[in-house]
Amino acid sequence: MSDHYRDEFPVTKKMAYFNHAAVAPLSKRALERVHAWANDMAEHGDLHEGDWWVEIEEMRARAARLLHAEKEEIAILKNTSEGIGFVAEGFPWKKGDNVVIAQGEYPANVYPWMHLQSRGVAVKTVPERDARIPFEEIEAAIDERTRLLSISFIQFATGFRSDLAALGRLCRDRGIDFCVDAIQGLGVFDIDMRELGIDYLTADGHKWLVSPEGAAIFAIAKDNIPKIRPVSIGWKSVVDFLNYSTIDFRLRDDAARFENGTLNVGGTVALGASLTLFEEVGIETINSLVKRNTDDLVTMLEAEGATIVSSRREGEWSGIVCFQWPDEDARAVVKRCRRQDVIISTRAGRLRASPHFYTNAEDLQRLRSALVNR
């Protein structure tokens, strides 16, 4: 199955790409939609704008299906940070409230919450232990003034995957809201927002969804849409947004109220094209292939003397494998690999490899060769 879809990824003609947790190569169908949009704009200007807006709405529907959500719960934003920022700034905080986050989070899920401290909102940080975020530590951090838990589904620097179902139940039991940065898991793991009890979820497409940077999915449970005050209002936020001559300030009642103006059309239709690939292959199949590829990767690395940092426990593994390579600086290893067109990265002083479903045994062998042949 993975080899069947190799032709969908032009990067495979030259590179062994193990860096989807950073910026993924575009799928062929995403590339084709960007080209089609750019060519149309170059040749016709906005003559066919309506056709592209239809395609944007199709992308919104696909994103909703991916999350088992409703189309009206999906907003299209620029990036993950924007979605988290909208929740942080729009939530009805009171002085003395607190938000719970985890140690080692990507800065996009730290700074928006820290910015609230000037308004009297405290940030409680759950410690990371042995490259894991223990559920018990999160549970203990929540107190009577906690209003929201915000966590990455998968931690970027360790690959640890949180149990969203358990955390969702915890948040419901404690009466707090649940915000998830899903960028490192959406496209590999099935995420059912309603079943998991997620109130807010944000992820853009340039990692596991193999799409361009600058187009993101922001999902908000419909009952929470009135709760979050939009902090960036524009012409597209209102009900009658195509009526430019009449000012009628009535906010849209769906998640699109958070889209304040013109979208990244090229990036959005490209993301929509990539989502057709995920529907075609199926998340369950993609998940099993990523599991196989990361298992094979770990087996190879351990055989060559590497120390695996990422948890491989059932329920905690992800597409990210972080490891220590013996007796060599991580940055030097990355440079050597890149000279051989093998792409990995470093995070927190460790090496990080993140294969996708189309990765095959030849890619793995190229990685092994690049690592061992100094």
Automatic annotation (TrEMBL):
<protein>
    <submittedName>
        <fullName>Cysteine desulfurase</fullName>
        <ecNumber>2.8.1.7</ecNumber>
    </submittedName>
</protein>
<dbReference type="Pfam" id="PF00266">
    <property type="entry name" value="Aminotran_5"/>
</dbReference>
<keyword id="KW-0808">Transferase</keyword>
<dbReference type="GO" id="GO:0031071">
    <property type="term" value="F:cysteine desulfurase activity"/>
</dbReference>
<dbReference type="InterPro" id="IPR015424">
    <property type="entry name" value="PyrdxlP-dep_Trfase"/>
</dbReference>
<dbReference type="InterPro" id="IPR000192">
    <property type="entry name" value="Aminotrans_V_dom"/>
</dbReference>
<dbReference type="InterPro" id="IPR015421">
    <property type="entry name" value="PyrdxlP-dep_Trfase_major"/>
</dbReference>
<feature type="domain" description="Aminotransferase class V">
    <location>
        <begin position="17"/>
        <end position="355"/>
    </location>
</feature>
<keyword id="KW-0663">Pyridoxal phosphate</keyword>
<dbReference type="InterPro" id="IPR015422">
    <property type="entry name" value="PyrdxlP-dep_Trfase_small"/>
</dbReference>
